[in-house]
Amino acid sequence: MLTTFINISAQASTGSLMLHPGMPLYLANIGISILLGGLLWYARPLMSLQPSASQLANPLAAQRTRISGLLRNPAVLGVTRVIVAGIFLLLIYAGLFGTQIPEKNAATIITWTLWWTLVVMSVFVVGSFWCAVCPWDTLASFLAKRKLWRRQRAPYSLELKTPPRLRNVTIAAILFAGLSWLELGYGVTLSPYTTAVLALIMVVLATASMVVFERKAFCQYFCPVGRTLGLYSQLSIAAIRPVNSDVCAKCTTLECYHGTDEIDPCPTHLVMGTLKNNTYCISCANCIASCPHDNVAWASKHPGYESVFARISSSESFFLLMLLSLALFHGITMMPAWDPWVKALTFHLSAWGLQTTANLMAFSMIMLVCIVIPMVIFAMLCGLSWSLAGKPKQFKPWLLQLSFIALPVAFAYHVAHNLSHLLRESQGLTEVLLNPVGLDALPLSQKEIHLRHLNAIINPEWIFAFQVVIIILGYLLAARIARKRINSLCAGSSIVSSRVLIPVMGFVFIMSGFSLWLLMQPMAMRY
Question: Are 486 and 49 in contact (CB under 8 A)?
């Protein structure tokens, strides 16, 4: 294994580029074979039936659990928020005043290797629970409203309603793309200082939004991390829901929406009795604490159920497709060929008299192309499917409803890609935790970093096997969503033939296959 790694490194275009081997061919072949089998199975004709009322109803049966009982006391979650905010402030201090060696500073290691990977993975189990303890929101609430968990008058907030034009996730999508641009174009992940500054900027944005708008407009519409987790949480196996829907139907006071004298209203304007999906729920537990009937609790659900029947807006569809594009783009930028591509385009731009900005323009242009290509492929294949179905509805609703198929594929590659970062770059985590500011720390040599990447926490073969399983599960869930969605869109037809299904299944297969191909490539690690 070590010899293979050294040989790959020697063939890289830059001598100092740190690479680790990609997924073995035999595992990739197994994955592709299963994808092909899934394509043939899920592209078979289906009987088109109108979804029944029971299918469209929320099938969750919430159970009162110990955690639900704890969350009825706002102080429990409030104390947790304070602890998380304290850790956040420590990371800010480490980034601003600690060593600038990225692998020795807690700001970069914990933020980019530990937190971002684990918070995405946790979505499958606990939905958007991270939003409930988010330090950006905790600090913003303290600065703008001088409170941590008790309801009180907001002395420094205008409490204006969010303008209708801003009541969508377009800004969050742009900010998410901007964060990716900063991360990959400016190397934010390699700079503790810039990481800390970026975190402080997010606190400022959250505070400014809270000062101007009512409730938590930043969490609901503008936060790039929160809206990412919100979309991903549709795949979660857990959600906050009513214990008995009949109780909610008879409720006239709606404390879950309006709050009480002591508990804040729902920060994202949700009514528990009509809640159908997790997208905008930030798991703050206000509804659990405020419900006078003790009728709200955590519930288990089938993964991806909401992606089968939920409605979606244009901005959510755009964000969802961009999540897929950006997830794949992160993998592309780690390939050995990435630097030569950027350098080649930079050379051509410099020849046109753009020397000062050529490199940044080259990166931005390639990034834009990588974002647009999956969207264009999706639109073309959906258009083909729509035409083959006889154009049963307007194309826009068809396009929007089928965009859900990108969600499991994006989530699967996001988790598989970050899993490698977590298990390879977490070596030395104990040392960083014991010395978060990197006092007297010395940088690792190239050889030490190479060996660290090779000596992952678990056997690399197991990492690759887990990645294949994750990609396959995402693919199968996306294929199931595609069949259910097309069944709903073609309601009224007696049968949906394979020719209608194959273009949409083809998109899922292409994106999942490309995900496996990316995982096969030798990748440049960060530190």
Answer: no
The tokens of 454 are what?
Answer: 């090779």
CB neighbour class for 25 (10 Å; exposed up to 12, middle 13-18, buried from 19): exposed
Alpha-carbon span 176 to 178, nearest angstrom: 5
CA distance 371 to 324: 8
* Nearest Cα residue to 41 out of 380, 501, 485, 486: 501
**55: amino acid identity, one letter:** Q
Domain assignments of the chain as residue spans, ordered by start: 9-55+334-524, 60-301
Would you mind telling me the total number of residues written for the chain in this entry? 527
Dihedral sign for Cα 162, 166, 171, 172, please.
Answer: positive
Residue 60 β-bridge partners: none
Give the type of residue at 12: A
> CA of 451: how far to CAs of 18, 113, 206, 458, in Å?
10, 18, 41, 14
Q: Which residues are CB-neighbours of 13 under 8 A, at least 6 positions away? A: 336, 337, 339, 340
What DSSP letter does each residue of 42-68 carry, written as one string? HTS-EE--PPPHHHHS--------HHH
Count Cβ atoms below 10 Å from residue 153 Cβ, excluding itself: 9
pLDDT, tens digit (0-9, with 9 covering 90-100), for 227-280: 999 999 999 988 888 888 889 889 989 999 998 888 889 999 999 888 888 899
- Average the pLDDT over 387-410 and give the result: 91
Which residues partner with 242 through β-bridges? 296
Q: Where are the alpha helices (DSSP H) in 186-313?
A: 192-212, 217, 224-232, 245-250, 255-258, 286-290, 305-309
How far apart CA 434 and CA 423 sit, in angstroms, is: 19
Indicate the helix (H) or strand (E) that contains 374.
helix 358-388
Angle at 171 between CA 165 and CA 174, to 5 degrees: 145
Prediction pTM value: 0.91
With b for 16 or more beta-carbon neighbours within 10 A and e for fewer, the 227-252 pattern comes to: bbbbbbbbbbebbbbbbebebbeebe
Cβ contact 224:179 at 8 Å: yes
From 120, 96, 102, 302, select the one nearest 199 (Cα to Cα): 96
Share of the chain above pLDDT 70, in %: 88
For 450-464, what is the HEC assignment? HHHHHCCCCCHHHHH
3-class DSSP string for 394-453: CHHHHHHHHHHHHHHHHHHHHHHHHHHHHHHHCCCHHHHHHCCCCCCCCCCCHHHHHHHH
Q: What angle do CA 415, 420, 423 make, to 5 degrees?
A: 110
- H-run or E-run covering 362: helix 358-388
Q: What is the mean pLDDT of the chain?
A: 86
Alpha-carbon distance of 184 to 162, in angstroms, equals: 32
CB 109 within 8 A of CB 421: no
Contacts of residues 37-44 at CB distance under 8 Å and 24 or more positions apart, as own/partner, are 38/472, 38/475, 38/476, 38/479, 38/509, 39/479, 39/505, 39/506, 39/509, 42/479, 42/480, 42/482, 42/483, 42/501, 42/505, 43/498, 43/501, 43/502, 43/505, 44/498, 44/501
